[in-house]
Amino acid sequence: MEKVDNLIKAQVLNQALPYIQKYHDKVVVVKYGGNAMTSPELKDAVMSDIVLLGLVGIKVVLVHGGGPEISEMLGKLGIESRFVGGLRYTDAETAEVVRMVLAGKVNKSLVSSLQHHGGKSLGLCGSDGEMIKVKKLEAGEDLGFVGEITGVDIKPITDALKCGFIPVIATVATDSEGQVYNINADTAAARIAAALGAENLILMTDIKGLLRDKNDESTLIPHVNVSDVPFLIKQGIISGGMIPKIECCVEAVRRGVSKTCIIDGRIPHSILIEILSNEGVGTLFN
Amino acid sequence: MEKVDNLIKAQVLNQALPYIQKYHDKVVVVKYGGNAMTSPELKDAVMSDIVLLGLVGIKVVLVHGGGPEISEMLGKLGIESRFVGGLRYTDAETAEVVRMVLAGKVNKSLVSSLQHHGGKSLGLCGSDGEMIKVKKLEAGEDLGFVGEITGVDIKPITDALKCGFIPVIATVATDSEGQVYNINADTAAARIAAALGAENLILMTDIKGLLRDKNDESTLIPHVNVSDVPFLIKQGIISGGMIPKIECCVEAVRRGVSKTCIIDGRIPHSILIEILSNEGVGTLFN
Amino acid sequence: MEKVDNLIKAQVLNQALPYIQKYHDKVVVVKYGGNAMTSPELKDAVMSDIVLLGLVGIKVVLVHGGGPEISEMLGKLGIESRFVGGLRYTDAETAEVVRMVLAGKVNKSLVSSLQHHGGKSLGLCGSDGEMIKVKKLEAGEDLGFVGEITGVDIKPITDALKCGFIPVIATVATDSEGQVYNINADTAAARIAAALGAENLILMTDIKGLLRDKNDESTLIPHVNVSDVPFLIKQGIISGGMIPKIECCVEAVRRGVSKTCIIDGRIPHSILIEILSNEGVGTLFN
Amino acid sequence: MEKVDNLIKAQVLNQALPYIQKYHDKVVVVKYGGNAMTSPELKDAVMSDIVLLGLVGIKVVLVHGGGPEISEMLGKLGIESRFVGGLRYTDAETAEVVRMVLAGKVNKSLVSSLQHHGGKSLGLCGSDGEMIKVKKLEAGEDLGFVGEITGVDIKPITDALKCGFIPVIATVATDSEGQVYNINADTAAARIAAALGAENLILMTDIKGLLRDKNDESTLIPHVNVSDVPFLIKQGIISGGMIPKIECCVEAVRRGVSKTCIIDGRIPHSILIEILSNEGVGTLFN
Amino acid sequence: MEKVDNLIKAQVLNQALPYIQKYHDKVVVVKYGGNAMTSPELKDAVMSDIVLLGLVGIKVVLVHGGGPEISEMLGKLGIESRFVGGLRYTDAETAEVVRMVLAGKVNKSLVSSLQHHGGKSLGLCGSDGEMIKVKKLEAGEDLGFVGEITGVDIKPITDALKCGFIPVIATVATDSEGQVYNINADTAAARIAAALGAENLILMTDIKGLLRDKNDESTLIPHVNVSDVPFLIKQGIISGGMIPKIECCVEAVRRGVSKTCIIDGRIPHSILIEILSNEGVGTLFN
Amino acid sequence: MEKVDNLIKAQVLNQALPYIQKYHDKVVVVKYGGNAMTSPELKDAVMSDIVLLGLVGIKVVLVHGGGPEISEMLGKLGIESRFVGGLRYTDAETAEVVRMVLAGKVNKSLVSSLQHHGGKSLGLCGSDGEMIKVKKLEAGEDLGFVGEITGVDIKPITDALKCGFIPVIATVATDSEGQVYNINADTAAARIAAALGAENLILMTDIKGLLRDKNDESTLIPHVNVSDVPFLIKQGIISGGMIPKIECCVEAVRRGVSKTCIIDGRIPHSILIEILSNEGVGTLFN
């Protein structure tokens, strides 16, 4: 890192003050994914940011999926995916692999990384402490063991926070019969944030944010009022894969989360900048 | 279940009283493995026993390995095992599979089962909260990423107990560089029991206990003083795979665990009978 | 006790599980009296049952009268009883004897017995901590110093429970002038149970329960809805001494006790069976 | 009460200040007996004093015997006392009567009186919470069920104090078999004071204190160092019934009680004057 | 002090009992001023009274102004006062002097005095912990930096009480820009008492109380219902400087203070007599 | 403030992480004085730094003197200073002025400033809660009411920290007779830091630190081991007013403070840089 002048250092720390104050003892849920998860450098930056936020009194909860690692493992195991209306069908065997990869590999590896950066963390999944209640998602077509969340019991999360741990949550859960379900990580993060009354839900993505013209990053929309979302969908500005993601944001805000942000996970330390400065690094919904 | 007379019911409950009293608020570590783990009926009985013990005020900690499931997964992934002096060599890829299977599949499935029986549980591994500190085991021959425990931080376990959860612990851990190590589950259970100052360490096995004549179950030795173990080894009564297992018992007792038992996991509810009655179901070491 | 098979033992313990769960941290008030109080064997069984229930996390409060011991002492002291409409008139001297026998003999003897069985108990009466507020009962005819409860302050009881003691309560109290009153033990138990928001009020009696034909024990009514009580009185099924007893049950349920049971104190361990199994041993009112 | 000038009132209250300060949160054990217990006026004054001391933050524990009431009850019951070497022999029947009178009549009547004066109190005996461990006193001659204290568990007393109650303790106890023993109240008070680490043990008597000439009240010895007691016995200044009483004082001081006083219970409010002024009202041992 | 008979001592202490009981754990706010503040003897008596009240479990909060010391310091500094409609105009320089004298001299001197009498105290002003929120008083004419209270945050006061300190409060405060304001001490005491839900607000004055005929002390009105105040003003019985003082009493009562008293600070120990006896020493408003 | 690049921001925040971690929940005592106290801009920077450190979990205690303001007030009041051996003699009148200015003006103004920057603070002096015990300093010549610290009771400071306040301490105290003493602020800060077991004592000065050549700022000695101080004095490197200041550092380290720093208060945010970076801004003693 280049040498930074003492005065600039002081100014930066000083400028972060009102934000540290604002978020003190508040909950921030970070949905972690995309490039920020696959690039070792970006991953390092995210881990370090989360530990830092914890140290200054912010209660960070890390929620993650792990798409590429699941695909890789399914490939190695020779399990072929059947697609239904463009979506992967999750049979029982696949659901088991998803759990194994998310809760056993990705989750515990994140736990280790956080601890490598000086935080204490606890790796949980939706089954631990019956945190996430789930039932089969009723969609137009049968998607197999894809779960719809029917309730969130925050006790395991708040207990972990109270005991000084950073909770890291893999988005798989089991129903009362022990059947494993895969859950969409954005949705899970939104529901967990809502149940915790979080101050902020941050969805890390691989895009700059919501763009008015999706080919021109200079057309970033920095702030969207959730009531304008239907109109933006109608206009086609929100389209494709952004629709379910932004609907998670809307859902979270409607259920009481103060604000949610879609931030660019390709920028190092984007979480830190989002939380501790007055400069957004993506699109804010509230 | 056959109809049991009210008086007999009362007598049984009543007889359990002094044992419930004795173990109240004490820690019991159960190393779970063998037939009790592979037979669904026996697994059900173990889960129900542990939940019951928790309800009557005993703090049960479940430690598990998962040999057969690891082998199965290695097989499916086409990872061939190299053997060194009869022991499986754990390369980096194998260590990752071990973690994934133990912490992601076996562990979370046990968590679900306990909750299916009415308990609240939390699935952890040695990395969570930096519970198990580990370094490369220095053996005669290089075994790869097999870990030797250098320390146990019980905070994640006691926090879980204090918050009302049954901790379920997968015996994998990471060193400070994030490298995954496989750990012998008996050893891990012994060290955890010692660190917790447990009242009892129960190792579930597929044998009746220590037999004077290994072909005759009627020669069960119900009680061994740990100071007699070297003599029994010399005599050949303790031999083969029993040696490391019983050395775990000795180690646990030496480090302060009041007693350890090798019990027959093939008998349904053997834990319950061991803890709540005056009839041992295996061999007790203290 | 006859030898019970290990499997049966395990089944019995296991079957008690959901009941232990249900009553965990709940209050159960036991009104102790009749044969269960006079037979040493039955008394022993009751004491042991209460200590056991305490150990598995149920908060038991023992409320007792002591009719036969009072009569015996009055006899020894040559105090003759005057009867008013079939009821004993309690003059000041008698009231003092009632207090002395209940609070000094019966109560402290129960305290000792519970401790002999491994529980810690505290012997209180209605005066301690001004637990039971009392005034002269206004009945058709003057019954002397028979008290009507005007209020219950549960603080001494909940304090004792919180400090780990089993409260044993003698049903005598004093008014603000220090005048001693005798109180009907069934009524006191009902009011205490209501004030504590008890899960269960158990009245131990010398009968099998409410019988449709009072000469035929096979006509036991296992369950009565309190709204049916007036009709059962009109029908003559509830009659005589059962009327005030059952009115206590009704009163307790009306004031918020989840259920009350009239159980047969002549059966050993009837409390244990009532609480920890699915087989009632008398009549349940709710 | 005569009209007292406002300034004098203020002076009196003001003068009590350093003593209230000194005793704040300290334990004072009062052995209550003699005239102060039989005269209604003196009893009223004692009760009011104890409640007042409690209100200003002093933790008072009241220990009592009840000689005259026991004798009266034994008389009414026609139980004749056998004397051994001048001391009453306590047979099993007598021991039961002692318990009944002390724990059921005297104790609960004191509880009522304290509450009549505005305090909250709890009436206990040595059996409650296994407070006083007791065995048969081995004396020169067999005295029957007279108990020697083998241990004091202060938990029931400190629990009562912590919960805001004034503990009132009857000096009877039971051994582990449930056998009732009578205990000398001075001895019990001394042992309880020692176990509690009391600041002051006050023994109320019917004499002015230790007199140099027992026929001349003007020869009161206001202060005795416990190391001088053997000499005073040898000189005959401490003699007769004063010997065991003063040996209790010596015992208490030796076991860590800061000071003990023998005060004149015939003077109204002698406790208040002893504690809250610089004028002793008897003899102080330390 | 003259010698007071032991019995009278006991009677006085005893008589104070119900009042100590009544005020136990209640808050009493004392506005300290006038002669009681300037005469060393009276000051000593007030300090001692407050420490005594604290010792018997009453939570006393001392609020003070310091008119004469302010005038003296302004004189020494040669700052001339401008008067507006008979009221002193507080310019910025004067406001600084007021703060310095009140918070630096009078306040800390009171803290020392209380500690000299055995209490532990903490000297605070309205700025500490942002206790008193203030804005410029909008009166008919501009009075400069005279503050109107817009809110009271009792946390610093209740924290001090909880930690065992007697809070001593100087009635100056700062607005969010750091500008110092002088605040009327009677008003501040009334608002603090209201915010604390005080049991009693005592205003110390140099008069006997409210007199029907202001030249005849025998016409003291011992008790006024706040609803009668407007009528008493109309009648001219409340007039001049008494009007704002009594309006503070009315305001305090209206905001929930149980009672407020105007007492004669020229009588030594008038606070003690007011609180701990049935004889008022001034006029009570409620 | 100039625009700082997001990445630099993130790097600065990130780099501060290990220091925030190191100081978490530790006590840092800042002796505030010199230019940093007289320049409004520097004062603003100090206040903001302290609030920021508090927000990230560091317990900052601010100790201050106030030389220039005292001199100014003494001048305004026409109090002439007598000098003894070059030191100002503190007569009783001067001591009163010192207290008034320090505890009433400087202290409360700092409290306001901290709150203006978003912290909650409590202004105390050595008399509050009898924090600083003091006696007349015995020096070669009589210096009047200059105090020597005989003890520090940290309760008022730790209570304030526990309740979430930043304690601001004026270095005046009173003896048990109420006599005011002036105390050297460096000494007071050192003793308070020692009593609190502080991690760091920071003395703000108007120099760059200890210089090898006092005319050449490039000769700054960044680190001194306290055992080398006598030698540095002998060499003349530590001389004049630096001697007592550095002796405070030595004293603090000897009494258990981990390290003390003399930092340059003329550099804005020097505290922040000292605590949260690896670049010292003065001389460190340990």
Features:
homohexamer, 286 residues, alpha/beta, Carbamate kinase, eight-stranded mixed beta sheet, 10 helices, 14 strands, 21% strand, globular
Task: Provide a descriptive summary of the structure in words.
- Six copies of one chain form a homohexamer.
- Chain A is α/β, with parallel strands linked by helices.
- The first copy, chain A, is 42% helix and 21% strand.
- Chain A is built from ten helices and 14 strands.
- Chain A is globular and about 60 Å long.
Largest sheet of chain A: 8 strands, mixed
Average pLDDT of chain A, to the nearest integer? 91
Which protein chains make the most extensive interface, counting residues with beta carbons within 8 Å of the other chain's beta carbons? Answer: A-B, 38 and 38 residues
Indicate the CATH class of the domain at 23-66 and 107-126 and 152-171 and 183-285 in chain A.
Answer: Alpha Beta
Our Rg estimate of chain A from Cα atoms comes to 19 Å
How are the strands of the biggest sheet of chain A laid out side by side? 5-8-2-1-11-13-14-12
Q: What is the CATH architecture annotation of the domain at 23-66 and 107-126 and 152-171 and 183-285 in chain A?
A: 3-Layer(aba) Sandwich
Number of strands of chain A: 14
pLDDT < 50 runs, ≥5 residues of chain A: none
Give the percentage of residues in beta strands of chain A.
Answer: 15-25%
Helical amount of chain A = 40-55%
